[in-house]
Write a structure and sequence with these properties.
Helix 1 (about 40-45) packs antiparallel against helix 2 (about 70-90). About 35% of the residues lie in helices and about 25% in strands. It has helices at about 40-45, 70-90, 110-130, 160-175; strands at about 5, 15, 25-30, 50-55, 60-65, 100, 135-140, 145-150, 180-185. It has about 180 residues and is α+β, with helices and mostly antiparallel strands. The chain is built from four helices and nine strands; from the N terminus they run E-E-E-H-E-E-H-E-H-E-E-H-E. Helix 4 (about 160-175) links the parallel strand 8 and strand 9 (about 180-185). The strands form two sheets. It has a six-stranded antiparallel sheet with strand order 1-2-5-4-3-6, with helices on one face. A three-stranded mixed sheet has the order 7-8-9.
Amino acid sequence: MFIQTESTPNPATMKFLPGQQVMPSGTADFTDAQGAKASPLADRLFALGDIEGVFFGSDFVTVTKSDAVDWTHIRPSVLGAIMDHFTSGAPLMAEGAENATGHAAAGDDDGPLVTQIKDILDTRVRPAVAQDGGDIVFHGFEDGVVYLNMIGACAGCPASTATLKNGVENLLKHFVPEVQEVRAV
């Protein structure tokens, strides 16, 4: 098995591409060892120590390390853990675990504006953010403000504020004039 690695805009996060499907649908984000118990792979990665986050996308795994360690020291261990997991045939998620994330659940009050915002995020924003090893999740729209959460490589990334304000906000304002602002949650 050959696993490609890519750097991300977040220097603490690296993207690992195992050459096969990781998540069949949605994404999963683990920010601590306790939450990682829902996934044998995430649990194995947190057990390495100096890991602060694990994120699963459709065909990639992003890993966020602590500032205490350099990638040259921990990268081989991360590669080994990912390779061991995928060659073992173990499931990605523990039985009964429901850690897939996505937009806030559609409600009866999702009007045409919210549907349009989610569609723009799904077709234009999320694929671009996934290229950097992360995801962006819709949490709400109220009084002209769109509330979004950046996860994976994008969480804590120095460029995430610029991405939200200069990229996503401008795009949404262009297509949905009712949008006045985008805020992170």
